[in-house]
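Marked as duplicate of an earlier ticket. Keeping the data here for the record.
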Amino acid sequence: MGQDLTHLTDQSQMSELCHLQITCIKVNTIRKKNITLSIKNQILDLLPLR
């Protein structure tokens, strides 16, 4: 019985880790998009065509 319980906790920990990794990846992608957007805006601000 004890082994079964540890197996279950390991599985839940693994799924939690996977969930955390997925959220981290999502946050990082959003940050990268925001960074590229801000860089584009800065470049546009530097251009004298505005």
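See parent ticket for discussion. The two ends are 71 Å apart (CA to CA).
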